[in-house]
Write a structure and sequence with these properties.
Number of helices: 15
Distance between the termini: 47 Å
CATH topology of the largest domain: Aconitase, domain 3
Shape: globular
Number of strands: 16
CATH class of the largest domain: Alpha Beta
Strand order of the largest sheet: 4-3-2-5-6
CATH superfamily of the largest domain: Aconitase, domain 3
Radius of gyration: 20 Å
């Protein structure tokens, strides 16, 4: 019996020829990641254990992005813990404000997320790197501490659910965000609990890397252990296009034709419309027609899901010549410094600012209700972020709708949830 891509990666990192779902395996880790919320806890546990040095100073990555630039004394103290630890340990990949970005957009840019790798991070959206053909998953801070010491971690090998996207996009506005929201709407937020979600089919083969990142990023919103797709020429072109060389030689894997799956789910592009998700769960995805007319107080473009350059290009194309609706706040957050500079140099900031939007330095900020766009009681926000739980972006009586950058931009112009075709044409 053949193996899935997830099983092959875990087997290789466990020094095994094969693994089967349900087995417990100890794997070597290529990257161990922490941010300014989770890493300080891991650092304290690391020190309590009496450890003197990380397993590899080039494979531990620390990114202050959640409350950075620091919003208050507590967040400044958190970042200080990271900064001092990175300095003491000689950590190669510590990204200070001015160099950092939203972690899951930053690591692929820095050549630190590669096909065939095992990547663990004390952040649930570490699953993003599955877009590059890596096994990547979120862990807790205590597990991060242990991994920083040993360079290994144990997993229960997950079963794999296969998602086949057939046909073509219904229209030019459909994005990876719509595909994953549609999928979560079908299977629910626990539909892939502790399973791998493997994305395949013609629509995935034709998808851009930015759309693939959005897809893999939200696998955890279906409860998945990881989301993954095979590395192909699009993946290779992305890796080669980065300013930084890959940090090590990588080995791409793909599923065998006779691999065994928990289940196979086939979707047709003709059936997938733009998919805003209503409060208070990502599974509340509905066709755009059912959301039209919902009045908004705020629109947020950014996050590890949709803060990439192609996302900003889409937003600028819709905003050009238009104005943000009266009474609505629009906040645009490029995900990394490179994306920020590229967008600025291309004139996108002129479009954003002329339209009446605020542009921020890279940060996770409002996505987790941290800063840079917190909601008051009763306010409604449409965001390109990944979660819309109660109180996620501020007051527990506020509401967050999730959508693609195209829907977000069009909605900012009209002041209510809007099909981009109604603003920018088909």
């Amino acid at each position: 019996m053949g193996m899935t891509i997830t099983e092959k990666i875990l087997a290789a990192h466990a020094g095994r020829d094969t693994v089967t779902p349900g087995e417990l395996v100890t794997c070597k880790v290529d990257i161990a990641l922490g941010n300014d919320i989770t890493a300080p806890i891991a650092i304290r546990e690391f020190q309590k254990a009496g450890a003197r040095a990380v397993f590899d100073k080039g494979r531990v990555v620390l990114v202050p992005d959640h409350f950075a630039p620091n919003k208050d004394i507590a967040s400044a103290q958190q970042t200080k813990i990271m900064r001092e630890f990175a300095r003491a340990q000689g950590i190669t990949h510590y990204y200070e404000v001015g160099k950092m970005g939203v972690e899951h957009a930053l690591l692929p840019e820095e050549g630190l997320a590669l096909p065939g790798d095992v990547i663990i991070g004390a952040d649930s959206h570490t699953c993003t790197y599955g877009a590059l053909g890596a096994f990547s998953t979120g862990i807790g801070s205590t597990d991060l501490a242990s991994t920083m010491i040993t360079g290994t971690i144990w997993f229960k090998v997950p079963e794999t659910m296969k998602f086949v996207f057939k046909g073509k996009k219904r229209n030019k506005w459909i994005s990876g965000k719509d595909l994953i929201l549609y999928t979560i709407g079908k299977i629910g937020v626990s539909g892939s609990l502790y399973r791998a979600m493997e994305f395949t089919g013609p629509m995935i083969d034709e998808a851009t890397m930015d759309d693939r990142f959005a897809l893999a990023n939200m696998a955890v919103e279906a409860g998945a252990k990881n989301g993954i797709m095979r590395a192909d020429q699009t993946t290779l072109d992305f890796i080669n296009a980065q300013a930084v060389q890959p940090f090590h030689q990588w080995n791409a894997r793909e599923s065998d034709k006779d691999a065994k799956y928990h289940s196979v789910h086939e979707y047709n592009g003709d059936d997938i419309e733009l998919q805003p998700a209503f409060p208070h769960l990502p599974e509340n995805a509905r066709p755009i027609g059912e959301a039209k007319g919902v009045k908004l107080d705020q629109v947020v473009i950014g996050s590890c899901t949709n803060g990439r350059y192609a996302d900003l290009e889409v937003v600028a194309g819709i905003l050009k010549g238009n104005k943000v609706a009266d009474g609505l706040r629009m906040i645009i957050i490029p995900a990394t410094q490179r994306i920020y500079k590229k967008a600025m140099d291309a004139g996108l900031f002129d479009v954003f600012i002329d339209a009446g939007a605020a542009v921020s330095t890279p940060t996770c900020g409002p996505c987790l209700g941290g800063h840079m766009g917190i909601l008051a009681e009763g306010e409604k926000c449409l965001a390109t972020t990944n979660r819309n739980f109660v109180g996620r972006m501020g007051h527990p009586k506020s509401e967050v709708y999730l959508a693609s950058p195209a829907v977000a931009a069009a909605s900012a112009v009209t002041g209510e949830i809007t099909d981009p075709a109604d603003v920018a044409g088909k």
